[in-house]
Protein backbone atom coordinates (compact mmCIF):
# COMPACT_ATOMS: atom_id res chain seq x y z
CA UNK A 1 0.00 0.00 0.00
CA UNK A 2 1.42 3.42 -0.95
CA UNK A 3 1.78 6.17 1.56
CA UNK A 4 -1.17 8.05 0.10
CA UNK A 5 -3.58 5.13 0.47
CA UNK A 6 -4.60 5.67 4.10
CA UNK A 7 -5.35 9.31 3.37
CA UNK A 8 -7.51 8.42 0.36
CA UNK A 9 -9.39 5.86 2.45
CA UNK A 10 -9.91 8.54 5.06
CA UNK A 11 -11.28 11.03 2.54
CA UNK A 12 -13.64 8.47 1.02
CA UNK A 13 -14.84 7.42 4.46
CA UNK A 14 -15.28 11.04 5.46
CA UNK A 15 -17.55 11.69 2.47
CA UNK A 16 -19.58 8.58 3.17
CA UNK A 17 -20.12 9.37 6.83
CA UNK A 18 -20.95 13.00 6.15
CA UNK A 19 -23.63 11.91 3.68
CA UNK A 20 -25.03 9.39 6.12
CA UNK A 21 -25.18 11.88 8.93
CA UNK A 22 -27.03 14.51 6.90
CA UNK A 23 -30.02 12.24 6.52
CA UNK A 24 -31.19 12.49 10.12
CA UNK A 25 -31.32 16.03 11.46
CA UNK A 26 -33.20 16.34 14.70
CA UNK A 27 -35.27 19.46 14.21
CA UNK A 28 -36.52 19.55 17.77
CA UNK A 29 -32.96 19.79 19.07
CA UNK A 30 -32.00 22.46 16.55
CA UNK A 31 -34.99 24.72 17.21
CA UNK A 32 -33.78 28.13 18.42
CA UNK A 33 -34.42 29.00 22.02
CA UNK A 34 -37.35 31.31 22.49
CA UNK A 35 -35.75 34.21 24.26
CA UNK A 36 -32.49 36.00 23.71
CA UNK A 37 -30.92 39.23 24.77
CA UNK A 38 -31.43 41.67 21.92
CA UNK A 39 -29.32 44.48 23.37
CA UNK A 40 -26.16 42.86 22.05
CA UNK A 41 -27.30 42.57 18.49
CA UNK A 42 -27.08 46.32 18.03
CA UNK A 43 -23.40 46.41 18.97
CA UNK A 44 -20.64 46.85 16.46
CA UNK A 45 -19.34 43.41 15.41
CA UNK A 46 -22.40 41.36 16.29
CA UNK A 47 -23.62 40.99 12.72
CA UNK A 48 -20.29 39.51 11.52
CA UNK A 49 -19.59 36.22 9.78
CA UNK A 50 -17.41 34.65 12.49
CA UNK A 51 -19.71 34.88 15.48
CA UNK A 52 -20.18 32.70 18.54
CA UNK A 53 -21.67 30.56 19.94
CA UNK A 54 -22.30 27.84 17.36
CA UNK A 55 -23.84 24.41 17.26
CA UNK A 56 -20.88 22.07 16.80
CA UNK A 57 -21.58 19.20 14.42
CA UNK A 58 -19.12 16.55 15.53
CA UNK A 59 -19.65 14.51 12.36
CA UNK A 60 -18.25 17.25 10.15
CA UNK A 61 -15.38 18.31 12.42
CA UNK A 62 -11.94 17.81 10.91
CA UNK A 63 -9.35 15.85 12.88
CA UNK A 64 -6.36 17.89 14.01
CA UNK A 65 -3.17 16.66 15.61
CA UNK A 66 -2.78 19.55 18.04
CA UNK A 67 -0.45 18.91 20.97
CA UNK A 68 -1.90 18.67 24.47
CA UNK A 69 -2.61 21.80 26.48
CA UNK A 70 -0.19 22.80 29.22
CA UNK A 71 -1.91 24.57 32.13
CA UNK A 72 0.60 26.70 34.01
CA UNK A 73 -0.13 27.71 37.62
CA UNK A 74 -3.68 26.42 37.26
CA UNK A 75 -3.34 24.50 40.50
CA UNK A 76 -2.17 27.52 42.52
CA UNK A 77 -4.47 29.37 44.92
CA UNK A 78 -4.74 33.12 44.35
CA UNK A 79 -7.01 35.67 46.05
CA UNK A 80 -10.14 35.83 43.91
CA UNK A 81 -12.91 38.37 43.42
CA UNK A 82 -16.47 37.78 42.18
CA UNK A 83 -18.28 40.45 40.24
CA UNK A 84 -21.92 40.69 39.15
CA UNK A 85 -21.69 42.91 36.06
CA UNK A 86 -25.41 42.78 35.38
CA UNK A 87 -25.03 40.19 32.61
CA UNK A 88 -23.10 37.41 34.32
CA UNK A 89 -21.02 36.61 37.37
CA UNK A 90 -17.31 36.91 36.70
CA UNK A 91 -14.34 35.63 38.67
CA UNK A 92 -11.02 37.46 38.56
CA UNK A 93 -7.73 37.03 40.34
CA UNK A 94 -6.79 39.93 42.62
CA UNK A 95 -3.45 40.83 41.11
CA UNK A 96 -2.42 43.44 43.64
CA UNK A 97 0.38 42.25 45.87
CA UNK A 98 0.74 38.93 44.06
CA UNK A 99 4.30 37.91 43.41
CA UNK A 100 3.60 34.49 41.89
CA UNK A 101 3.09 34.29 38.16
CA UNK A 102 -0.60 34.25 37.24
CA UNK A 103 -2.15 31.24 35.43
CA UNK A 104 -1.52 30.91 31.69
CA UNK A 105 -1.83 28.28 28.97
CA UNK A 106 0.38 27.05 26.14
CA UNK A 107 0.06 24.17 23.66
CA UNK A 108 -3.29 22.84 22.49
CA UNK A 109 -2.56 24.14 18.99
CA UNK A 110 -2.16 27.73 20.18
CA UNK A 111 0.91 29.44 18.75
CA UNK A 112 1.44 31.82 21.65
CA UNK A 113 1.20 31.99 25.40
CA UNK A 114 -2.25 33.10 26.63
CA UNK A 115 -2.67 34.59 30.10
CA UNK A 116 -5.80 33.98 32.18
CA UNK A 117 -7.89 37.13 32.66
CA UNK A 118 -11.34 36.10 33.93
CA UNK A 119 -13.95 33.37 33.93
CA UNK A 120 -17.73 33.73 33.83
CA UNK A 121 -20.90 31.72 33.39
CA UNK A 122 -23.92 31.36 31.16
CA UNK A 123 -27.13 29.73 32.34
CA UNK A 124 -30.81 29.56 31.47
CA UNK A 125 -34.30 29.22 32.86
CA UNK A 126 -34.82 25.56 32.27
CA UNK A 127 -31.91 23.26 31.65
CA UNK A 128 -30.92 24.97 28.44
CA UNK A 129 -28.24 27.35 29.58
CA UNK A 130 -25.13 26.58 27.55
CA UNK A 131 -24.23 28.88 24.67
CA UNK A 132 -22.46 26.26 22.56
CA UNK A 133 -24.30 23.12 21.57
CA UNK A 134 -22.74 19.85 20.59
CA UNK A 135 -24.75 17.97 17.96
CA UNK A 136 -27.77 20.08 18.87
CA UNK A 137 -27.53 19.29 22.56
CA UNK A 138 -27.67 22.22 24.94
CA UNK A 139 -26.32 21.80 28.48
CA UNK A 140 -27.76 23.41 31.65
CA UNK A 141 -24.89 25.94 31.84
CA UNK A 142 -21.50 26.83 30.39
CA UNK A 143 -18.28 28.17 31.89
CA UNK A 144 -16.04 30.46 29.85
CA UNK A 145 -12.38 30.84 30.85
CA UNK A 146 -10.96 33.86 29.04
CA UNK A 147 -7.24 34.25 28.21
CA UNK A 148 -5.47 36.95 26.18
CA UNK A 149 -2.47 36.58 23.91
CA UNK A 150 0.55 37.64 26.00
CA UNK A 151 2.30 39.08 22.96
CA UNK A 152 -0.21 41.96 22.97
CA UNK A 153 0.63 42.87 26.56
CA UNK A 154 -2.87 43.48 27.95
CA UNK A 155 -6.37 42.09 27.52
CA UNK A 156 -7.64 45.41 26.16
CA UNK A 157 -4.86 45.63 23.58
CA UNK A 158 -5.41 41.98 22.53
CA UNK A 159 -9.11 42.65 21.80
CA UNK A 160 -8.38 44.06 18.36
CA UNK A 161 -6.43 41.06 16.98
CA UNK A 162 -7.96 37.92 15.51
CA UNK A 163 -5.63 35.78 17.64
CA UNK A 164 -6.09 38.08 20.63
CA UNK A 165 -8.12 35.80 22.91
CA UNK A 166 -8.27 32.09 23.68
CA UNK A 167 -11.47 31.09 25.48
CA UNK A 168 -12.36 27.69 26.94
CA UNK A 169 -16.00 26.67 26.66
CA UNK A 170 -16.76 24.12 29.37
CA UNK A 171 -20.17 22.48 29.39
CA UNK A 172 -21.89 22.11 32.76
CA UNK A 173 -24.27 19.24 33.37
CA UNK A 174 -26.23 18.29 36.48
CA UNK A 175 -25.41 15.70 39.10
CA UNK A 176 -27.19 14.87 42.34
CA UNK A 177 -24.32 15.90 44.62
CA UNK A 178 -22.71 19.32 44.97
CA UNK A 179 -19.52 20.20 43.11
CA UNK A 180 -17.12 21.11 45.93
CA UNK A 181 -15.28 23.78 43.92
CA UNK A 182 -18.63 25.48 43.21
CA UNK A 183 -19.50 25.43 46.90
CA UNK A 184 -16.62 27.86 47.36
CA UNK A 185 -17.48 29.78 44.22
CA UNK A 186 -21.23 30.22 44.76
CA UNK A 187 -20.84 32.87 47.50
CA UNK A 188 -23.22 35.22 45.67
CA UNK A 189 -25.20 36.58 48.64
CA UNK A 190 -23.43 39.97 48.74
CA UNK A 191 -23.64 40.59 44.99
CA UNK A 192 -27.19 39.50 44.15
CA UNK A 193 -28.29 43.07 43.41
CA UNK A 194 -25.46 44.92 41.59
CA UNK A 195 -27.09 48.30 42.24
CA UNK A 196 -26.27 47.73 45.92
CA UNK A 197 -22.91 45.92 45.65
CA UNK A 198 -21.44 44.24 42.62
CA UNK A 199 -18.24 42.69 43.85
CA UNK A 200 -16.97 40.60 46.74
CA UNK A 201 -13.84 38.67 47.56
CA UNK A 202 -14.11 34.88 47.73
CA UNK A 203 -13.63 33.43 51.20
CA UNK A 204 -12.10 30.25 49.84
CA UNK A 205 -10.28 30.62 46.55
CA UNK A 206 -10.75 28.00 43.88
CA UNK A 207 -7.72 26.89 41.85
CA UNK A 208 -8.60 27.06 38.16
CA UNK A 209 -7.69 23.40 37.74
CA UNK A 210 -10.70 22.48 39.94
CA UNK A 211 -12.99 23.93 37.26
CA UNK A 212 -11.51 22.06 34.29
CA UNK A 213 -13.13 18.87 32.99
CA UNK A 214 -11.47 15.55 33.87
CA UNK A 215 -10.46 15.13 30.26
CA UNK A 216 -8.89 18.12 28.54
CA UNK A 217 -7.24 16.02 25.81
CA UNK A 218 -10.16 16.01 23.41
CA UNK A 219 -11.75 19.25 22.28
CA UNK A 220 -13.26 21.18 19.40
CA UNK A 221 -11.52 24.25 17.98
CA UNK A 222 -12.90 27.05 15.83
CA UNK A 223 -12.43 30.79 15.28
CA UNK A 224 -15.21 32.92 16.68
CA UNK A 225 -16.20 35.88 18.78
CA UNK A 226 -17.08 37.09 22.21
CA UNK A 227 -20.74 36.32 22.90
CA UNK A 228 -21.30 39.53 24.87
CA UNK A 229 -20.51 43.20 24.53
CA UNK A 230 -19.09 44.09 21.13
CA UNK A 231 -18.91 40.46 19.89
CA UNK A 232 -15.30 41.07 18.74
CA UNK A 233 -14.18 38.35 16.31
CA UNK A 234 -10.93 37.73 18.11
CA UNK A 235 -11.48 34.43 19.91
CA UNK A 236 -9.77 31.10 19.29
CA UNK A 237 -12.40 28.86 20.86
CA UNK A 238 -11.69 25.57 22.59
CA UNK A 239 -14.86 23.67 23.46
CA UNK A 240 -14.12 20.59 25.54
CA UNK A 241 -16.36 17.60 24.87
CA UNK A 242 -16.15 16.45 28.49
CA UNK A 243 -18.50 18.42 30.77
CA UNK A 244 -18.13 19.30 34.43
CA UNK A 245 -21.11 18.87 36.77
CA UNK A 246 -22.88 20.80 39.53
CA UNK A 247 -26.05 20.12 41.49
CA UNK A 248 -29.46 21.59 40.69
CA UNK A 249 -29.27 23.56 43.95
CA UNK A 250 -26.01 25.11 42.78
CA UNK A 251 -27.44 25.99 39.37
CA UNK A 252 -30.38 27.70 41.10
CA UNK A 253 -27.92 30.03 42.87
CA UNK A 254 -26.97 31.60 39.53
CA UNK A 255 -30.60 32.33 38.68
CA UNK A 256 -31.01 34.37 41.88
CA UNK A 257 -28.55 37.00 40.66
CA UNK A 258 -30.11 40.24 39.41
CA UNK A 259 -29.22 42.81 36.76
CA UNK A 260 -28.81 46.53 37.48
CA UNK A 261 -32.57 47.08 37.02
CA UNK A 262 -33.35 44.54 39.69
CA UNK A 263 -34.59 41.89 37.27
CA UNK A 264 -33.60 38.31 37.94
CA UNK A 265 -30.82 37.14 35.63
CA UNK A 266 -32.63 33.96 34.72
CA UNK A 267 -31.01 33.62 31.32
CA UNK A 268 -27.90 35.05 29.64
CA UNK A 269 -27.52 32.87 26.59
CA UNK A 270 -26.86 34.16 23.09
CA UNK A 271 -28.50 32.36 20.15
CA UNK A 272 -26.28 30.05 18.10
CA UNK A 273 -24.76 31.76 15.07
CA UNK A 274 -24.19 30.50 11.53
CA UNK A 275 -20.86 28.87 10.72
CA UNK A 276 -20.50 30.63 7.32
CA UNK A 277 -17.08 29.81 5.81
CA UNK A 278 -15.53 28.43 8.99
CA UNK A 279 -14.42 24.93 9.85
CA UNK A 280 -14.49 23.20 13.21
CA UNK A 281 -11.48 21.08 14.10
CA UNK A 282 -11.46 18.22 16.60
CA UNK A 283 -8.58 16.91 18.66
CA UNK A 284 -9.31 13.32 19.67
CA UNK A 285 -7.84 11.84 22.82
CA UNK A 286 -4.46 10.77 21.51
CA UNK A 287 -3.49 7.21 22.19
CA UNK A 288 -2.55 5.62 18.86
CA UNK A 289 -2.01 2.15 20.35
CA UNK A 290 -5.64 1.81 21.47
CA UNK A 291 -8.25 3.34 19.17
CA UNK A 292 -11.04 4.76 21.29
CA UNK A 293 -13.86 2.38 20.42
CA UNK A 294 -14.09 1.15 23.99
CA UNK A 295 -17.32 3.01 24.76
CA UNK A 296 -19.71 2.61 21.82
CA UNK A 297 -22.58 4.30 23.68
CA UNK A 298 -20.69 7.60 23.98
CA UNK A 299 -22.70 10.36 22.29
CA UNK A 300 -19.47 11.80 20.97
CA UNK A 301 -18.27 8.62 19.34
CA UNK A 302 -18.47 10.21 15.97
CA UNK A 303 -16.51 10.70 12.80
CA UNK A 304 -13.27 11.61 14.59
CA UNK A 305 -13.28 8.44 16.68
CA UNK A 306 -14.32 6.28 13.77
CA UNK A 307 -11.60 7.61 11.52
CA UNK A 308 -8.85 7.07 14.02
CA UNK A 309 -10.22 3.63 14.79
CA UNK A 310 -10.58 2.55 11.21
CA UNK A 311 -7.37 4.10 10.01
CA UNK A 312 -5.37 1.98 12.41
CA UNK A 313 -5.86 -1.46 10.75
CA UNK A 314 -5.17 0.03 7.31
CA UNK A 315 -1.61 0.91 8.29
C1 LIG B 1 -8.30 30.48 12.62
O1 LIG B 1 -7.76 31.55 11.87
C2 LIG B 1 -6.37 31.48 11.64
C3 LIG B 1 -5.95 32.76 10.96
O2 LIG B 1 -6.73 33.03 9.85
C4 LIG B 1 -6.06 30.23 10.83
O3 LIG B 1 -4.67 30.12 10.63
C5 LIG B 1 -6.56 29.00 11.59
O4 LIG B 1 -6.36 27.85 10.83
C6 LIG B 1 -8.03 29.15 11.92
N1 LIG B 1 -8.44 28.05 12.81
C7 LIG B 1 -9.40 27.21 12.52
C8 LIG B 1 -9.69 26.17 13.52
O5 LIG B 1 -10.06 27.28 11.49
UniProtKB/TrEMBL annotation:
Keyword Cytoplasm (UniProt): no
MF term (GO), any: zinc ion binding
PANTHER family per UniProt: CARBONIC ANHYDRASE (PTHR18952:SF265)
Domain of life, source organism: Eukaryota
InterPro entries given in the database record: CA_dom, CA_dom_sf, Carbonic_anhydrase_a-class, Carbonic_anhydrase_a-class_CS
One cellular-component annotation, GO: plasma membrane
Job description of the protein: Reversible hydration of carbon dioxide.
Catalytic activity, reaction form: hydrogencarbonate + H(+) = CO2 + H2O
Annotated signal sequence range: 1-23
One Pfam family, short name: Carb_anhydrase
Keyword Zinc carried by entry: yes
Domain spans labelled Alpha-carbonic anhydrase: 25-284
EC number: 4.2.1.1
Family affiliation: Belongs to the alpha-carbonic anhydrase family.
Cofactor: Zn(2+)
Protein name: Carbonic anhydrase
Top-level enzyme category: lyase
Assigned keywords, A-Z: Lyase, Metal-binding, Signal, Zinc
